[in-house]
From TrEMBL:
UniProtKB keywords: Hydrolase, Metal-binding
The protein's role, per its UniProt record: Catalyzes the reversible cyclization of carbamoyl aspartate to dihydroorotate.
Domain of life of the native organism: Bacteria
GO molecular function annotation: allantoinase activity; metal ion binding
Name of this chain's protein: Dihydroorotase
Cofactor(s) the protein requires to work: Zn(2+)
Any GO CC annotation of this UniProt entry: cytoplasm
Length: 446
C-alpha cells in the first residue's frame, strides 16, 4: 500500500482553514485529523511546516494542442507544467487537428492522455453546424461536456446557424460550454481598423476590435436561448463588466442552469499592459479595461461568476511575434495560474478559502465530477501544498511549457507550489518530478 502522511498543514476546505494532518493511502484520502501518527516504516512523511494544503486545481478550459499542433505543445509537456503549477485535473478543448467532432476522434484524444498525461483529464466534444447526430451519441457520464464556438472558431467549428444552434440546445443533455463573441461585430470593427492601419494595426486596438459589445451580444443571445430551451449553459472566459450582469447569485451553484467562468489573465492584466506585453497578451476574448477587471473581480467574489480557469493556449514565440493581424491569440498559463492567484490573495483581492472554492470545489460541482475537488475522507487524493512565503521569479530556465515563454516572465511571485499529489502519487516536489502518476479519466455524476 502506498502511504503518504502530510503533517502540520493549514488544510483549506469548504470555507475553513484548520491546522492538522492528512493521511493518504493508495489513491484516496484516508484520514484528516489534528494529529496522525506514522502508520508504517514505508510511509512517506511530508512536513508541511504550516504551508497551505489545498485540493488540486481543476482547470475547466485548456488547449494542449494534441493532436495536430504539437509544435506548440502536447498533452505530456503541458500536463507536466500543470502538475508543477498545482493543477491536478484538466478539461481540454476540441479545436485540435483533427477536431474532436466525432466519437472516434474524441476517443483518440482520451487514448493519448491515458498514455502521456501527468494529471487527470477529460475532453470537450466539439459542436458544429452539422454534427448533431454525433453530439447525441456522447455519454454525459464519461465526457466533460459540449464546446460551442459562438465566435473566434478554428476550422469549421463556428456554430452560426440559428436553427442548428436552437436544435442543439434543445436536444442535448450535455453541459454546453460556449465561447461568446459576435463575429459580425468583430468583422465590422476589424474593417474599420484595416482601413486605417492596413496590416499594422496597433495591438492596443485589440479590445476595440473584439469589443465589449461583441462579447455582450453573443453572451446575451446564448443565455436567452438557454432560458428558452432549458439547456445547461456555461459561458467561458468572461472579459467585460457588462456581461457579469447577465448572471445571478440567487441560487447555490448546484442548482444553477446558467454559469460563468473567468480566466486568470482577465483578472490580472488590463489594456494598459499592451504597451509592454504586446501580442503576448493577445487573447480572445481580449484583455480589456480596468473597469472590466474590477467588475470581473466583483462578480467573482459575489458568486455571479462561478469558477476560475486558465484558457491555457500556447503558441510559439515566432508565431506570437508577428504583427497584430497575423499573431495568434492565446498564451500559456497552467504553470503560473495558482501562483498568480496567491499573489492576488497577498494583495487583498481574494481569500485563500475563496480561491479554493473557485478553482477546485466549484469546478467539481459545476461539472459534477466524481470524488474530486475537496479534501475529504474517501475522496481521490489530488492535493497540493503551497508555501505562501517562498518568493521566486519566472524566467526562461524554470518555464516548463513546450513553447518556452510566459506572459509572466520577469514577475516575482511570493508563493510557490512545493508538492503536487495526483491520485495519491507524489508527482512534483520542489522543482522535481520524483514519480509519474497513473492519471485517470474524469467521471461525472450524471
Amino acid at each position: 500500500m502506498n502511504t503518504i502522511l502530510i503533517k502540520n498543514a493549514q488544510i483549506v476546505n469548504e470555507g475553513t482553514i484548520i491546522n492538522g494532518d492528512v493521511l493518504i493511502q493508495d489513491d484516496r484520502i484516508a484520514e484528516i485529523a489534528e494529529s496522525i501518527s506514522v502508520k508504517s516504516a514505508d510511509t512517506k512523511v511530508i512536513d508541511a511546516d504550516g504551508c497551505y494544503l489545498i485540493p488540486g486545481m481543476i482547470d475547466d478550459q485548456v488547449h494542449f494542442r494534441e493532436p495536430g499542433l504539437t509544435h506548440k505543445a502536447n498533452i505530456a509537456t503541458e500536463s507536466k507544467a500543470a502538475a508543477a503549477g498545482g493543477i491536478t485535473s484538466f478539461i481540454e478543448m476540441p479545436n485540435t487537428v483533427p477536431q474532436a467532432t466525432t466519437i472516434d476522434l474524441l476517443e483518440e484524444k482520451f487514448a493519448i492522455a491515458k498514455e502521456t498525461s501527468w494529471v487527470n483529464y477529460s475532453f470537450m466534444f466539439g459542436g458544429t453546424n452539422d454534427n448533431l447526430d454525433e453530439i447525441l451519441k456522447v455519454d454525459p457520464s464519461k465526457v466533460a461536456g459540449l464546446k460551442l464556438f459562438l465566435g473566434s472558431s478554428t476550422g469549421n467549428m463556428l456554430v452560426d446557424n440559428p436553427e442548428t444552434l436552437e436544435e442543439i440546445f434543445s436536444k442535448t443533455d450535455l453541459l454546453i460550454s460556449a465561447h461568446c463573441e459576435d463575429e459580425t461585430t468583430i468583422k465590422q470593427n476589424m474593417s474599420v481598423y484595416v482601413a486605417e492601419f492596413g496590416e499594422d494595426i496597433p495591438i492596443e486596438k485589440h479590445p476595440l476590435i473584439r469589443s465589449e459589445e461583441a462579447c455582450y451580444i453573443s453572451s446575451s443571445k446564448a443565455i436567452e436561448l438557454a432560458k428558452k430551451t432549458g439547456a445547461r449553459l456555461h459561458v467561458f472566459h468572461l472579459s467585460t463588466e457588462k456581461e457579469t450582469h447577465l448572471f445571478s447569485n440567487k441560487k447555490p451553484l448546484s442548482e444553477k442552469k446558467i454559469t460563468a467562468e473567468v480566466c486568470v489573465h482577465h483578472l490580472w492584466f488590463t489594456d494598459q499592459d499592451y504597451a509592454t506585453k504586446g501580442t503576448k497578451i493577445k487573447w480572445n476574448p481580449a484583455v480589456k479595461t480596468q473597469k472590466d477587471k474590477d467588475g470581473l473581480w466583483k462578480a467573482l467574489l459575489d458568486d455571479r461568476i462561478d469558477v476560475i480557469a486558465t484558457d491555457h493556449a500556447p503558441h510559439t514565440l515566432e508565431e506570437k511575434n508577428n504583427n497584430y493581424t497575423k499573431a495568434p491569440s492565446g498564451g500559456p498559463l497552467v504553470q503560473h495560474a495558482l501562483a498568480a492567484l496567491f499573489e492576488m490573495h497577498h494583495k487583498g483581492f481574494i481569500s485563500v478559502e475563496k480561491l479554493v472554492e473557485k478553482t477546485a470545489h466549484n469546478p467539481a460541482i459545476l461539472f459534477q465530477i466524481k470524488d474530486r475537488g475537496y479534501i475529504k475522507r474517501g475522496y481521490k487524493a489530488d492535493v497540493v501544498l503551497v508555501n505562501p512565503f517562498a518568493p521566486w521569479t519566472v524566467n526562461k530556465e524554470n518555464i516548463l511549457y513546450k513553447c518556452g515563454w510566459s506572459p509572466f516572465e520577469g514577475t516575482t511571485f511570493k508563493s510557490r507550489v512545493t508538492h503536487t499529489i495526483v491520485n495519491g502519487v507524489l508527482v512534483y516536489e520542489n522543482g522535481k518530478f520524483p514519480n509519474k502518476s497513473v492519471p485517470e479519466r474524469l467521471t461525472f455524476n450524471r
